[in-house]
Amino acid sequence: MIILSLASASGQDAYTVVRNSKMKYGVSANAEVQTYEWKVYTDTDLSIEADASSECKLTPVTGEPHSIDVEWLSDGTYYLTLYATGTNGCTNKKAWKYTVVSTAVIAFDEIASSDCADADNSFATELVAMFDSGTELAESQYPVTVSYRLDGDVADRTATVNYADKMLNVLGILEDENKETINNITITGATNKYGGIIHVAPGKDVHERTIFKKPTITGIELK
After folding, report:
1. Nearest to 137 by CA among 197, 187, 73
2. What is the pTM of this model?
3. How many other C-beta atoms lie within 10 A of the C-beta of residue 151?
4. How confident is the model at residue 107 (pLDDT cuts 50, 70, 90)?
């Protein structure tokens, strides 16, 4: 859950959200508050509510009236707003600005690597995930779930990528001491911690892993 800090709708920086993310927001429970009402607006005047079917969907959290689940469905700028009415009948209103984007991309940092055949076929390579061309995905968006395939696979494999190292641990690499093998690893999809869709960057979606065979040594001869 994201605990919101209080802010007004106008004059504040927007938080960036990846489209299709489903996030839980909340404030600290307060015994002096009788009711909590959450809304999302599309304007700074807080007069036009977002469309629940196409822009964002709000779902109450059972047993937590001070929290709300929000699914961000469409790009744009929105204002998540909380109306808290006290036991004395007074109401306080606060809003938080969010920018929803569909520009997030993920790619291999390096698109090729090689190694000599050995008994260890484990392999990991670094990924780069970004909101846009200049802003890396924030730590709060991790872990990222990545789907990938190797040549010959009939179904996707799934791996979890953490913020600390951003490494994709790949299973299924083929190694043969007697011949060179080339393993193409293709990213087929990715989502952030909240289920937001991260697009695969064209031209950086395949990593070629070459495994070289061992050199042949003939029988020893007396010279």
Report:
1. 197
2. 0.83
3. 12
4. very high
* Cβ contact 149:156 at 8 Å: yes
Mind giving me the DSSP string for 93-128? EEEEEEEEES--EEEES-SEEEEE--S---EEEEEE
Instruction: Tell me the C-alpha distance between 83 and 37, whole Å.
Output: 5
Which helix (H) or strand (E) segment is 35 a member of?
strand 33-41
pLDDT at 8: 41
Rg (CA), the chain: 25
pLDDT of residue 188: 97
**Burial of 113 by CB count in 10 Å (0-12 exposed, 13-18 middle, 19+ buried)?**
middle
Q: Is the pLDDT of residue 6 over 50?
A: no
Does residue 60 have a cis peptide bond before it, meaning omega lies within 30 degrees of 0? no
Q: Which amino acid is at 61?
A: V
pLDDT of residue 90 exceeding 70, the answer is: yes
